[in-house]
Design a protein that fits this description.
Order of helices and strands: EEEEEEEEE
Strand content: over 45%
Number of domains: 1
CATH superfamily: Cupredoxins -  blue copper proteins
Shape: globular
Distance between the termini: 48 Å
Mean pLDDT: 88
CATH class: Mainly Beta
Number of strands: 9
CATH architecture: Sandwich
Radius of gyration: 16 Å
């Protein structure tokens, strides 16, 4: 009888995935703490609304992403990165990057 060995592949140090869910017109979690080198994925779980991620301090905005779609950004440098939804300025979030 042959045996099957299943392995688990873990991301390399500094490359762990981090996720922010967009639902009910808010970012969950609202504040996400990560380490330098990590990539954050925003997942739109709304039923009808599209959103963008706007970092005003950096003058950087994602394209709009629709229900079921995602947006990703890597954060290499420590710092605090406040953001909001472009079309919905009441939706606020923060990425905190620290060692």
């Amino acid at each position: 009888m042959a045996s099957l060995c299943l392995g688990v592949i873990l991301p390399a140090a500094g490359a762990e995935p981090a996720e922010v869910v967009v639902e009910k017109m808010q970012f969950v979690p609202q504040v996400l703490r990560i380490k330098p080198g990590m990539t954050v994925t925003w997942v739109n779980r709304e039923k009808r609304s599209n959103h963008s991620i706007l970092f005003e301090q950096e003058n950087l905005e994602s394209d709009r992403f629709f229900p079921g779609e995602t947006y990703q950004r890597a954060f290499d440098k420590p710092g605090i990165y406040p953001y909001r939804c472009g079309p919905h300025p009441e939706m606020l979030g923060v990425i905190e990057v620290a060692e």
